Amino acid sequence: MNPPSARPYDQQQLAAARTRLANERTLLTYVRTSLALVGFGLALLQLEPRRTHALGFGALGAAALFMLIGWLRFRYHARQIERCRVPAA
């Protein structure tokens, strides 16, 4: 039997929390990919700056683009999640 002070789970709040966490995980995936591209770009620039110059800077530019897309996507979906929230009764 449940103790009298325990509140029952609100399925709507739990679903919203799972959705917010999924959105944060997706942002972290964009960050991880961006950091990998930064490492790849810097490694190319350090190995042979003359031959891999364009590819290294291209990877750095792609990293910045990935980070920007991830951040914009995160903000957009966070606003959508908040807009769909049902007020507590």
Keywords:
DUF202, 89 residues, elongated, 76% helix, single chain, transmembrane, mainly alpha, transmembrane helix, membrane, YidH family protein
Describe the protein's architecture and organization.
There is one protein chain. The protein has one domain (21-83). By secondary structure, the chain is mainly α. The mean pLDDT is 87. Helix 1 runs antiparallel to helix 2. 76% of the residues lie in helices and 0% in strands.
In short:
The two termini are 24 Å apart. Helix content is 76%, strand content 0%.
Q: Low-confidence spans: pLDDT under 50, at least 5 residues?
A: none
The value of Rg in angstroms is: 21 Å
Q: Specify the helix fraction band.
A: over 70%
The number of distinct structural domains comes to 1
What is the N-to-C order of secondary-structure elements (H for helix, E for strand)?
A: HH
Layout of helices and strands, plus pairs?
Blueprint: H1 11-47, H2 53-83
Helix pairs in contact: 1-2
